[in-house]
Structure formats: C-alpha cells, structure tokens
Amino acid sequence: MSQPPSITLHVPEGTESDGQEPSPDSERALHTSFHQLILEQSSLIEAGLELEMKERDRESPACLAPPDACAAAWPEPGQGEQCPGYSSASLQILASMPSRTIGRSLGAIISQYCNRTARLRRRSSRPPLQQLCRAARPSLRQYDLDTDPARATLEDKWSLLVKELLSLSPYQRSQMLLTLPISLAEKRTLRRQVNRQRGLLRQHAQHWAPSSPCGWSIVYVGLGCRGLWYRLLSLLRTAQPWHYTLKQISGRFGSSVLSYFLFLKTLLMFNFFSFLILLAFVVALQAVYPPPSASPPPFTGLELLTGAGYFTHSLLYYGYYSNVTLNDPCTPGSKGSACPPAAPPFPYNMPLAYLFSVGVSFLVTCILLVYCVSCSFRESVGSSLGDLAAKVFCAWDFKVIQRRSVKLQCENFCTQLKELLAEQRSRSHSQSLCQRLRHCIVVLLAWTLALGSVLGCTLAVHHLSKHMHVVQQEQRAQGSGRWQQEAILLVLPLVVSLLNALMPHLYNLLAMWEKQDSPVTQVYVAICRNLILKMVVLSLLCFQWLSRSVVCSTEECWETCVGQDLYRFVVMDFIFTLLDTLFGELVWRLILEKRLRQRPEFDIARNVLELIYGQTLTWLGILFAPLLPAVQMLKLLLLFYIKKTSLMRNCQSPSKPWQASHMSTIFITLLCFPFFLGATIFLSYTIWSVQPSETCGPFRGLETIYKSGKSWVLVLQKSNPNITWFAWVHQHLVENTFLLFFTSGALLAVIYFYIQVVRGQQRVICLLREQIAKEGEDKIFLMQKLHSVYEQRERRA
Questions:
Q1: What keywords is this UniProt entry annotated with (predicted)?
Q2: 33 and 9 in contact (C-beta within 8 Å)?
Q3: Which of 109, 351, 690, 739 could disulfide-pair with 708, CB 3.0 to 4.6 Å?
Q4: Which has more confidence, 649 or 18?
C-alpha cells in the first residue's frame, strides 16, 4: 500500500534564537500559510486525481489515511470503526492543524516536556520578559520538535525527560506529570522510573553520610527543624479562627450564607486593628496617668444599657481624657511653680496623641478596606457560568482522607453544583412582552411603597427626637430621679432599632409580591432598600448630633453625650438582633414545622445590613468613645456563635441555591463607599469645623480640634528655630485641603482603574471561552469544505 505524502506546514521564521518558541505575532503568518496550504492541496488534488483513482482501483485500500488520523475523524452513528470516505489529503491537513500537532506523536510530547522542564530549571538564569523583543517572547503553540530527522530515538527522549524531571522540586514534578497528555499507563511507567532513579540517588547519598557523631547530630537537627517548620506551616490554616466552622457552614448552606460569616470575620479584623491603635497610644497611657475627677456615682447595672451614670467619667468617653502633656513636671498639677532642671524622660502630648490615633485608625481601616475590595474583585473575575465542567471533573480534592472531612467536602461539592445549575436555570428563563410589562409595573409600585416607608420612618425619627429633647429638659427642671432620666435616654435608640428590625420584613413581603426569578436579584433589591433606610436615618442622626440637639443627662460635655448616644444605638442594635434571632428564626421555625413541615431560610440581606449598620455606628463614635471598637468586637464575637447556632438548628439551606461569588465584593464595596466614606466625612467635618467643649476633653479651650496640631507645631517652632521647615510642611501639606481632595481623587481613580481592569479581564475570559468553542467547530467546517472540493473534482473527472 502506498503511503500518502507527508504534509509539512512551513511557517515563516522571524528573528528568533535557537531554543525559543515563536511569538504570538507570527500566528497570523501561521494561518496565512495554512490557507495557502489548502489552496495548494486543492490544486494537487485536481492535478493528481486521475492517478489517485487508478491507485485506488489497483490497491483497493480500506482507508488511505493512517490509523491515528482515521481514528481522529468523526464516524457516523452505526458505522462502528469504519473510516469515512475522506481523502488522505484532507486527513493529513486535519492532522497538521495547530490544535492537533501537540498530540501527534509520543516523541513530540516527550521532547516538548523535556524542553519545558529544562526551561523551568533554567528560569532563574533567563532575562526578564520585558527585556526581550516581541518576536523572542514565548508562545503557546508550535512545540514541533519532532520534525528534525536527526532527532534522537524515543528511548533517548524518554530517558532525557526522566533526567529533567529529577532536577525539579517534588511539587513541580507532580504538576508536570499531571499535565502530560499521555495515557495513564505511560504516566505510571514514567513515575516508576523517576522514583527508581530517586532511590538510586538516595542510596548514593547514604554512602556519603557523615562518619563522626557531630556530623550526624547536625543532620538530625536539620531534619528536625525542617519537620517542625512543615508542621507549623500545616497548622497555619487550622489556626485561623473558625476554620472548621466556616467549612461546615459552606458545606450545608452554600457560599451565599457563608459570605455573611466571612463578612463578620472581616469586620472583626477591622475593629481589632482600630482598638489596638487606640489602646496602645491613648487609653493605656491615660489609665496610667488618670486626671483628677470627681468620684463617680455607684454602679447600678442600668449603665450597661444607657452608657451613662458610672460610665460617664471613665475611659469609655471623650470627656475623661485630659488636655495636658503626660509625664511633664511643668504642668499646673505638679508640685511647685518652677520646673526642675532635668528634662522629663518621656513627655507625651495627649491631645496630639488622641487626634493622630483616631486619624491613623481611620487610615489603617481605609487601607484594609481598599485591599479587601481589590482582593474581592480579583477573586470574582474567575467566577462565571463556564465553571460547571471544571467543577464536575476537577473540583474534588484527593488529598482529603479523613471520614469527616470527606463528608464535609462532599456536601460542599453538591451545594456548589446546585448553585451553578440554579444560576444557569434562572438565566435561561424567558418571559413574554406582557409578562415583562406587568412585572415592571409591579416593581415600580413596590419601589414607590418602599421609598414612601423610608420617608415616613425618617419623619417619625425626626419628630420623636425633638419631642424627647423637650421631655428631657422638663424632667431636669422638675428634678426627676436618676432612673427615670436614664430610662428616657433609651426611647430614641429603641424606636430606631425597632424600625430597622421591622422594615426588612415589609421589604420581604414586597419581594414576594415582585416574584423575582433570580435569588441574586432578590437579595440585591432587598439590600438596596434596607441601605436607603439606614443611610437616611443615620444622616438625620448625624445632623442632630452636630447641631447639639442631643438628649443628654449632662450639659458640660456634648461629645460625651454623642458617645453615649452611639453606645446606646450599638447596644440596642445587638439586643434587637438577638430578639429577631429568637422570634424570627426559632419561634418561626416551630410554627413552620408544625404547619408546613419546613424551616425558615437565612435572610442574608437583612443580616448583612445589620452588620454594616453596627460597624458604621462604631466608626462614627471612635472620636467620642475610644473604647467603642472593643464593644463592637464583643458584639461581633457573640453574634457569630449565636447566629451559627441558630443557623444550624433553626434554618434550612436556600430553596433556590445561588452562587455568591460576587456577594462578598458587594458587601465590602457597600461598607467602603456609602458608610465608611460617610463616617469619614462626618468626623472630618467635626475635626475641622465644630468647636469642642470648653470644660472637658483633650481639646478644651480650642476653636476646633484641628487647632491642636497647629498649636503643637508653633510650640516646636519656638523651642527649636532649626525646624522651621516642619512648620512649612504642616502649613502647605496638612492645612491645605487641596492635598486631601487630591489624595481622595487619586484613590477613587485607582479603584476605578482596577474595576475597569477587572471588567476587561472578564471580557477577555469570555472571548477566550468563545474562541475555545469555535476551535472545535473549525475542524468540522474545514473537513466539510475540503471534502466538498474533493467531491466536486471527482465528479468533474
């Protein structure tokens, strides 16, 4: 039988050096050459058609194509292993396509991976990619190393590949073996040969073992230190807080419910850093040097709710902190009027430390927020609908061997598959024009009711605040008891927390009326409505606090009154969260189990907005109550265990499983821009424009809080004329508001740039997936075209 002529695809070579792959720029030349090859092959078919027909009549072959190319064609159903009637030239062109060259022969594969391991081993000595010209950069195609007739045999290539694999690290070796496009039997053979060579190398190394006891002790110490280091690395992940609990929640309830607990963990980290800064530079030093103050009233227990009484003159609030330089013998409180000749060992300016500690706390929180937002955007790029095949075939972790871990991973795997399938089903649902029009009208009416309820709640809070302010002044004039005065302080936080607890249920009824098909859209709409309510109420409260119309039990320090108000709001928010967990999940679960034999679902939108609302109150109160982050940390710790217990015992997995890949990004973004930015504006306005109290706090007697930094610079300039440059820097960089606006604008521009980069990467990923799908269709299209040309020439002959 005559063999068909081999067809070689010649690609124009560039300025590439030996050992380097062609660049992606030459791929256009590749497709041009391939098109020319098709035209040349068509002319060859026309010229040699008669000769080929004679050969077929003489030899009567079953199939002119080689076995591997024949197997690569698409047989018709029912044909079994019979080769279709494609010409040998068509099958040769199909075998020479770029997507088929990598699997053409075992020798080419071994040569390719031998070169790849060599490049991986020599990567440290290669120049950076930026220093190479575009024609010399690596490409993803054309590992055609088997075209040289002087190439070594298959056994030599195999031994060379084993040698190169031995030079890699164990992790790189295992990854390289996994990516080899050969059969499992050949992979096992290759792995056995590598292990055999490693055993020989170990035996050779044992002959070189140290002979003295000191040498053996050094070897044992090194091995012990390495084993200890590996154990410490393995304990890092298990040492993370709530590691197993989060896995358990993800396995039973999916990534949507898990995003709530991950968000709570992130907020706990923010408050920990803020509390650590304030404790180290303000609270601890003021506790060591307490200011002279009157004896506090006795502790009654009501202070845990109101924050007043015993807590008023304590480290919890702004009014307790002094405005002197700590450890300075020249302060008015020191004995005598003359200062000692010896300088104090560690003078500490408390007003300056208070201001800079609050500023650094917000700066660290801003950096962490931007970092979390960027990480969330980066993680959300790879999440899309095309991950279903990868999830089915590649998601199982074969390193898990414990029975409990295997069961947990199986639950998590099944839940993720449900999420992906539910999201695909929701996207494939289509509606008619009348259904869409009716749905738009229902959504418009629901939004009208939601915005009307927000307006009503805002007016109610405004009138209630004014009324309680009048009642408080009347009770002071009448000389009412202490318990009655402190109980009135709880009315406004009680009403606001009650509205924040009841209105989300109204919004859930509106969502049921809207009948959103996608659970993601339903959660986004609920978050948006709750967000508008909380933002409007908080804006009204901030306006009242800055206008000094606050309900306060003392008149001498309005900052302490604002701090007490914020403390009461945080405590009331925690109490209503507990009540909602008790009645909204436990009691509702008992009712549903008796009536419908099912359990309620975990409301992600409402619970996440409660966390954001509580964290915003903490940021607003850092200036007025430095220990408020500690209160928030205790609240978050209790919330985690309470919500986790209630989730496991009272709730069921979502009836519509959905993928929360973008949910964490939405949570962090909402926390960053509407709430953290609003809290920063509120505190910045307080520091730059509002006059502090005259009788209490570290900034008493100043026009604004910001003046403390300016007065400190003037004192430094008078004490040492050589540092006048520092005063110039403070005047032109710190006092100038242009720098603040420029920094904020640059930060927003960077965030916008990263958002656009992420969107561009998502678009590129979609285009690459579409290209992968189209490359499979290219083969069928090319075969049909070549076969039609061949049939036309055959009919003409």
A1: Membrane, Transmembrane, Transmembrane helix
A2: yes
A3: 351
A4: 649
Asked if residue 559 is part of any domain, the answer here is no
Predicted confidence band of residue 16 (pLDDT cuts 50, 70, 90) = very low
Q: Is the pLDDT of residue 796 over 80?
A: yes
- pLDDT(558) > 80: yes
Contact status, residue 488 vs residue 472, Cβ threshold 8 Å: yes
Question: What is the model's pLDDT at position 330?
Answer: 57
Mean pLDDT, residues 416-421 taken together: 74
Nearest 5°: the CA angle 99, 102, 104 is 100
Q: For the beta carbon of residue 434, count every other beta carbon within 10 angstroms.
A: 8
Interior CA angle at 345 toward 343 and 349, to 5°? 90
Q: What is the mean pLDDT of the chain?
A: 75
Give domain status of residue 792, yes or no: yes
Residue with tokens 């005259």: 694
The CA distance from 115 to 117, in Å, is 6
pLDDT digits (tens, 9 = 90+) for 123-169: 544 454 444 444 444 443 443 444 444 445 677 778 888 887 887 77
CA distance 776 to 34: 17
Rounded Cα distance between 753 and 607, Å, is 31
Residue with tokens 């109101």, as numbered in its chain: 306
Helix (H, G, I), strand (E, B) or coil at 387: helix
CB-CB contact of 316 with 563 (8 Å): yes
Cβ atoms within 10 Å of 276's Cβ, excluding its own? 13
Range from 82-91, 198-207, 687-696, 744-753 that averages highest in pLDDT: 687-696
Tell me how many domains the chain contains: 2
Count of Cβ atoms closer than 10 Å to residue 312 Cβ: 22
| Token pair listed for 28 | 């256009």
Q: How would DSSP label each residue in 135-183?
A: GGS--SS----S--TTPPPHHHHHHHHHHHHHTS-HHHHHHHHHH--S-
pLDDT value for 533: 93
| Residues facing 601 on adjacent strands | 652
User: What would the mean pLDDT of 254-267 be, rounded to a whole number?
Assistant: 88
**Is residue 215 classed exposed, middle or buried when 0-12, 13-18 and 19+ CB atoms within 10 A define those classes?**
exposed
- Rounded Cα distance between 790 and 784, Å, is 10
- Please count the other Cβ atoms lying within 10 Å of the Cβ belonging to residue 298: 7
Q: How far apart are CA 181 and CA 101, in angstroms?
A: 12
Arithmetic mean of pLDDT, 533-556 = 78
The highest-confidence range among 422-426, 516-520, 578-582, by mean pLDDT, is 578-582
Alpha-carbon radius of gyration of the chain: 37
**Residue type at position 653:** S
Place of tokens 């408390």: 350
- Among 167, 185, 200, the domain boundary falls at 200
Is the four-CA dihedral 355, 356, 359, 361 of positive or negative sign? negative
Q: Tell whether 219 is covered by a domain.
A: no
Q: What are phi and psi of 652, to 5 degrees?
A: -115, 165
Residue 269 scores a pLDDT above 90:
yes
Domain presence at residue 471: no
Q: Containing H/E element for 89?
A: helix 88-95
Residues sharing a CB contact under 8 Å with residue 89, sequence separation 6 or more, in sequence order: 4, 7, 41, 44, 45, 786, 790
Q: DSSP string spanning 727-768?
A: HHHIIIIIS-HHHHHHHHHHHHHHHHHHHHHHHHHHHHHHHH
CA distance 322 to 353: 11
Domain containing 193: what range?
157-200
CB atoms within 10 A of CB 39: 9
Give the residue carrying structure tokens 């480290």. 315
Run of H or E including 325: strand 325-326
Rounded Cα–Cα distance for residues 719 and 622 (Å) = 33
Q: What is the per-residue pLDDT for 555?
A: 56
Cα dihedral 129, 134, 137, 142 in deg (nearest 10):
170
What is the b/e burial string over 435-465, where b = at least 16 CB atoms within 10 angstroms of the residue's CB? eeeeeeeebeebeeebeebbeebbeebeeeb
